[in-house]
Write a structure and sequence with these properties.
The protein has 139 residues and is of the alpha/beta class. The chain has 3 helices and 5 strands; from the N terminus they run βαβαβαββ. The longest helix is centred in the C-terminal third of the chain and has 19 residues.
Length: 139
């Protein structure tokens, strides 16, 4: 098997926004450091911190399925939900991103019954090529 079971991996549900996934931003490595893992599988979709809105119930179910599949297949030791400021997929204030990503992370942990930590992270905007990353919750 190509996968080393001793390697730590996280599954991150993150926004599909291209600005986060530029090589210069180094998003995967930063999520890996924030979660204490070295490797990160990504589930990318618009505005993941808005998935608990009633009108996005279908997206929420699909995203949960994708996270579960990857977490089970790669024996993930952590999960992260990563929101970002200035998001077109979930256009809310910075404070609402902090609140909403916590709610999604907590709901994801509960719905999957995941025993490891689930991180709520927010990419903070400095410029399209420069982002901070802050932890706003851990469940």
């Amino acid at each position: 098997m190509f996968w080393n079971r001793r390697k730590k991996l996280a599954v991150a549900m993150t926004c599909a926004d291209w600005r986060l996934h530029q090589r210069v931003v180094d998003f995967n490595a930063r999520i890996g450091r924030a979660t204490g893992t070295g490797e990160v599988d990504l589930v990318a979709l618009p505005g993941p911190d808005g998935l608990l809105k009633p009108e996005r119930a279908g997206e929420w179910d699909a995203a949960k399925g994708q996270v579960k599949l990857l977490a089970d297949a790669h024996h993930a030791s952590a999960i992260a939900v990563v929101a970002h400021q200035r998001c077109a997929g979930h256009p809310v204030s910075d404070g609402e991103h902090d609140h909403d990503v916590q709610a999604v992370a907590k709901a994801l942990k509960e719905s999957l019954g995941f025993s490891g930590p689930v991180y709520a992270l927010v990419a903070t905007y400095k410029s399209d090529r420069n982002w901070g990353l802050k932890e706003v919750g851990r469940f």
